[in-house]
Amino acid sequence: MKHSLRVCWLYHDIMDLYGDKGNMMVLKKRCEDRDIDFVLDTCGIGEKKNLCDYNLIFLGGGDDKTQFSLIPDLLSRKENIKQAMDENTFVLLICGGYQLFGQYYTASDNQKIDGLKFYDYYTDTGADRTRCVGNIIIEANLDGIKTQIVGFENHGGQTKNVSKPLGKVLSGYGNTFDSGYEGFYDGKILGTYLHGPLLPKNPVVADFVITKALQKDDPEFKFEDLKPLENSFDEAARDVLFKRLNVEK
Ligand code: GLN
């Protein structure tokens, strides 16, 4: 069976902080190297798209003002996103995108917006307006695949009531300054504060995301079915961070 990865990148033109676009480039390259068709579609405010047509939805990070600007459009797509998720479209969310799938987001100026409310987690910003900024390493278990995920975080939002964190923080902050946990993963969405961008420095996560997306069309598809690729460049980039943060690999 010829596989294809069909991605819809939501708000590609405004939600693209700290190189989130690099995630799309990595998915493209890792699919091409395996003869998997790769289709990248984008969806801006007001554009008509049926998200059920894709096997991956991607939403990157953005500043508060941008997050507020897209909320009416995002909420208008709630039923369609829900239907796509019910039909096993996988969802990858970075930072601001991750926050918007929860109950609400309160920005540093106390303005509050509703999220999609698919999950119980919610995001407040501390009164002192301090931000979680810096390199981060977490330890995650992706459906049995144990991996250390590296990245860069920069968020004022403090995400609480996270029932299923993506991983345990080894160095850095994560969902809040002191929760010790980072992100959210429940088999349907992977939400994380890790920019950097996420996928170039984490080939295991990139392949995991490809696997989850391909399973929409081929439920039997497994992570091990992906042809192994040469990752020495990615590993060298990871090594720098492990050394700098003094975390054992
Ligand atoms: N505006 C949000 C915050 O500061 C998200 C920022 C981001 O996506 N990096 O918490």
From TrEMBL:
* Hydrolase recorded as keyword: yes
Q: Boundaries of each CobB/CobQ-like glutamine amidotransferase domain copy? A: 6-202
Catalytic activity annotation: L-glutamine + H2O = L-glutamate + NH4(+); beta-D-GlcNAc-(1->4)-Mur2Ac(oyl-L-Ala-gamma-D-Glu-L-Lys-D-Ala-D-Ala)-di-trans,octa-cis-undecaprenyl diphosphate + L-glutamine + ATP + H2O = beta-D-GlcNAc-(1->4)-Mur2Ac(oyl-L-Ala-D-isoglutaminyl-L-Lys-D-Ala-D-Ala)-di-trans,octa-cis-undecaprenyl diphosphate + L-glutamate + ADP + phosphate + H(+)
EC number in record = 6.3.5.13, 3.5.1.2
Q: Annotated Gene Ontology MF terms? A: carbon-nitrogen ligase activity on lipid II; glutaminase activity; transferase activity
Any one Pfam family here would be GATase_3
GO terms (BP aspect):
cell wall organization; cobalamin biosynthetic process; peptidoglycan biosynthetic process; regulation of cell shape
Give the matching InterPro entries. Answer: Class_I_gatase-like (IPR029062), CobQ_GATase1 (IPR033949), GATase_3 (IPR011698), Lipid_II_synth_GatD (IPR043702)
Q: What residues make up the catalytic site?
A: 95, 195
Instruction: Print the keywords alphabetically.
Output: Cell shape, Cell wall biogenesis/degradation, Glutamine amidotransferase, Hydrolase, Ligase, Peptidoglycan synthesis, Transferase
* Gene3D superfamilies xrefs: 3.40.50.880
**What domain of life is recorded for the organism?**
Bacteria
Q: Does the keyword Cell wall biogenesis/degradation apply?
A: yes
> What pathway is this protein a component of?
Cell wall biogenesis; peptidoglycan biosynthesis
Tell me which residues bind substrate.
131
Give the family this protein belongs to, as stated in its UniProt record: Belongs to the CobB/CobQ family. GatD subfamily.
Function, as annotated: The lipid II isoglutaminyl synthase complex catalyzes the formation of alpha-D-isoglutamine in the cell wall lipid II stem peptide. The GatD subunit catalyzes the hydrolysis of glutamine to glutamate and ammonia. The resulting ammonia molecule is channeled to the active site of MurT.
Quaternary structure, from the entry: Forms a heterodimer with MurT.
Would you tell me the protein name for this molecule? Answer: Lipid II isoglutaminyl synthase (glutamine-hydrolyzing) subunit GatD
Gene transcribed to yield this protein: gatD
